[in-house]
């Protein structure tokens, strides 16, 4: 859902300005995986969920002023198969993401700073559920892919975590987003 972390990965190529170019993100080789945890008194009775988010389009510029941006269609986020997948998918699209009202998730970097060999700290703006908030992500280049993890809170984006059983089982506010991004 907060798929916006991916941008950070794209700036990691140490290329001179003469050879730098804007590159398209390859949606077939890039993935966002959202880990949705559980909390509450009876959380042992609940399920943790994995959600995949395909990148619709995006670019990475690895020149002298690196930048990354991408878009995800919120209606294409998918709960990985499990016992109650259809019900969870419906709840995510209708009650959590409100995909009909907020069809896109966007990320655009503000700053990319090298922190070590083939590692970067990327800050930018993530737009989710009609709210735009700052996001910081740590990215590394591994085997030709920009990889990393970001943590966001649903409530920062105006989303109330889903609960059941009078609040005794709830989705955690904090979401972990792993990403692996490759350019064309």
TrEMBL record:
Residues 1-20 form the signal peptide. InterPro entries: Lipid/polyisoprenoid-bd_YceI, TTHA0802/YceI-like_sf. Residues 22-184 form the Lipid/polyisoprenoid-binding YceI-like domain. Keywords: Signal. The keyword Magnesium does not apply. It comes from the Bacteria. SMART domains: YceI (SM00867). This is Polyisoprenoid-binding protein YceI. It comes from Tunturiibacter lichenicola.
